[in-house]
Amino acid sequence: MAARSPRAAPDAADAPSPPGWLPVFACWALAAASTLGALFLSEVMQVPPCVLCWYQRVFMFPLVLLLPMGLFPYDGRVIRYALPLTLAGALVALFHWLLILGVIPEDMKPCTQGVSCTDVQVQWLGFVNLALLSLLAFATMSALLIAARVRSSR
User: Fold this and answer.
1) The whole model's pTM is what?
2) What is the C-alpha separation between 134 and 95, in angstroms, rounded?
3) Rounded to whole angstroms, what are the CA distances from 75 to 15, 78, 148?
4) Which CATH number goes with the domain that contains 145?
5) What confidence tens digit (pLDDT) does each residue in 110-149 have?
6) Is residue 7 part of a domain?
7) Cβ partners under 8 Å of residue 70, min gap 6
8) Contact between residue 78 and residue 66 where contact means Cβ atoms under 8 Å apart
């Protein structure tokens, strides 16, 4: 087997990944974990989602398919399509969390049929509910996409 000379061009495997690749990949991993968690809770644990949970899913589920299209090969333009989904999802999740906390009055709740949006069906550590987890996921994904955009523009 011949040794590679130091002047030889690096292989594609040796080439560094684009600066925005890792944050977009982390965003995809978080979206995939969130989607799997939502599906596990509703399909396996039989926890019915409320109307606001469905809206949050509308913004989360497409990210699992959209983000990998911009990763292989890396295309920074995927950020302009994914970021509006994460920001809109964060706004819905924030509204849902504030509704659960009682900051938003009951008469503004959109859930008039089925599961109430103010019911806390799953709660960990006494304060972590699904609306808060969704808000944290969307906020983290938004921050990752903004970081990828900043890194790519340098």
Assistant:
1) 0.84
2) 11
3) 16, 6, 11
4) 1.20.1550.10
5) 776 777 777 777 766 766 788 899 999 999 999 999 999 9
6) no
7) 24, 76, 77, 78, 79, 81, 82
8) yes
